[in-house]
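Why does residue order matter? Because the sequence determines the fold. Keep that principle in mind as you read this record.
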Amino acid sequence: MKITRHYLTINGRRVHYRRAGKGPPLLMVHQSPRSSSEYEPLMQEWGARFTCIAPDLPGFGHSEPLGIANLTIEDIADSLMAFVDALGIGPVPAYGFHTGAIVLMSAVRRFPEKFTALSAVGYPILNEQEREILGDAYIPPNPAKPFGEHLVWMWNRILEQSWYFPWYRQDPKTRMPFAHDNPELVALIVDDMLNCNDAYRFGYRAAIEAQNDIPAADAEAPPALLNGYVGDPLTVHMERTGLLPKGWHKSTQANPLEQRAASLDFLLTQRAGDEAGPLPEDGHQGFLPVKTPLFEGLIHWRASGDPKRLHIHAPGKELGMADVSDAIEIDMPGHGLADKWKGAAPADWQAWQDVIDAVAAHFGIAKTSFDPPAKGDIDRLYPDLSPSRFGHHLTEAWGIVRAAHIFEPWYEANAAYAVDFDPSDLEPERLVIEHRALIRAVSAKQLAMALSNK
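Structure:
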């Protein structure tokens, strides 16, 4: 099942969304601090029955924030309705987990005509004491810091969230039943947090402060299933729902797999409508499907001005980091938001050139420009930054991008290799961009090798 990705500018704000499958549309809304990426496995499965459409909520993933002070859940739900209207897919069934369920409940209560069904998983009904517990201590500020201390907190906060709830109350009584130490799972969430950085708090806070939005028992509302699974600390909140509208039900499953199956079964009973056709997307940025002998996936691109050339970033970088105009910038495979190579990333230049040629042919551009690669020994320039048990790869990458402004190459920290630099380049807010690009650049070493063999 292929998942495509798209941008759509709505009211001057960029919204990123994923799409997969065929059949009537199904709206899928993610939890905090995640993005639509968390639904990729589910979209692969449910795409056999629905056209799954999953946007990134404002300020999460690759959607721009709303820019509203004191953001509320109603603000987020209104932006979701603007997205549905812009796509022209309503009325639509919807699925949401935790924050996603909260956003959808607000939308369903106020705009019931926009929905045909709702599956809300882990919908919380918090009391004031619980809101305080999930307040400042649960979502503290974590701005980028000069030596990357914020990354240590970020990794361990996400890691231990699977150990305790709330994560900051380390006590045998708060243990979670699904504790793990899988760095790949932690990295998925941390990657989403790296996209929103300290702004993760605003959408989170809006969800925590949301009131019970379940419609009144006598309200006109689409059918709904409120469910959850044993071990999710929010599942017990279903005991607080009170009387539900006609056609609303609640249930608890033994585990996440059974919960998802129950949600799908419910949504299928409400499945109706025409198959989703082409959906609108921006014409100046997006994700281009590319197929070559060694690569098949999406290439992230963005155009500026009157594009007359294709611009290629340096290894370990990504589009948007160079000062270019009148060009189409792309993320090379295994960099930025582009997909990875089908197998091992090649060190042969022709495979990379094939991707460039395919993109250039699509846009009808003949000229290509390149950012110069970093100088130094390729093996030392690009160490393995795969996720590690305690997140050491994050701080290692931070140290690399910081040192790269002071020495060339970065690993030669002595006076003979010192370079002039602007102190403002070491501001944490700037290093965040370079650090995120380096973490994403899983094929940086191979691109550097290919360029050296060009």
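The chain has a mean pLDDT of 97.
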